[in-house]
Amino acid sequence: NAGNMEKDFEWVSLQAKSFDVEVSNKSDDFSQIAVQGPKTLEHINQIIGQDVRDLKFMTFYVVPYEDLHIIVSRTGYTGEDGFEIYAKNYLISKLWSDSIDQGAVPCGLGSRDTLRFEANLPLYGHEISESINPVEAGLNFAIKLDKPFIGRDALVTYKENPKRKVVGLELLERNIPRHGYEVYSGDILVGHITTGYLLPNVPTPIACALVDIKYAAIGTELSVLIRNKKI
Q: SS3 of 56, please?
């Protein structure tokens, strides 16, 4: 997440002290565009001038482009198929225009946020953060506890006795449960909304919430405090 650039670099720099290596932050030299949607596969080759259609999900290629190279990944964080292109800033400007020439339509972070939420994909600062661990976020598929990594022992201990969990909520009234709103069981505060929207193709408002594990079972009735009213 680009919003974490400074603290990510501080973390890498701290870990680098254990190795014979120099690190530098090149973030200002590079940009990224995400070309996403059901027709992306038809157009990506024309956009970058390379055949990357066999790129597997969650992998990347380094491919030549003009007199330099670009990185193309396939992580698709909108619920649709999609490719991401990383390159020097001036190359990204050209690739942006080429994408639009191929029929892509520019959209902003608001669109991306509703799309990733509709696909139940977590966003840093909402369903995952420095204070929400990956077990709580439901990301056990990404945790390989049989391998060593920083934080492994803490996760092993937490997994034995989890305290919270990110769950899905469906509201019974047309009120939007926004990020940060409190979640109750009766008069007991049990958590907060991490993301909530009224989506275009869903008749009722839905949300993700981080709640006390005792109230995380499917079918549990909870309330969201919206403008001093419990919904």
A: coil
Show the tokens assigned to 90: 């001036």
Crossing angle for the helix pair 40-48 and 89-101, nearest 10 degrees? 130
Cα 46 from Cα 209, distance rounded (Å)? 41
Q: Distance between CA 56 and CA 61 in Å, rounded? A: 10
Instruction: Check the CA dihedral 205-206-211-215 and report its sign.
Output: positive
Cβ contacts of 150 within 8 Å, gap of 6 or more: 15
DSSP code per residue over 22-51:
-----GGGEEEEEEESTTHHHHHHHHHSS-
Do 120 and 168 touch, CB atoms closer than 8 A?
yes
The amino acid present at 151, given as its one-letter code, is: G
In this structure, are residues 39 and 53 in contact, taking their beta carbons and an 8 Å threshold? no
pLDDT 10s digits, 46-104: 999 999 989 999 999 999 998 899 999 998 888 889 999 999 999 999 999 999 998 99
96 contact partners, CB below 8 Å, separation of at least 6: 33
Q: What is the pLDDT of residue 181?
A: 98
**Contact present, 202 and 190 (Cβ < 8 Å):** no
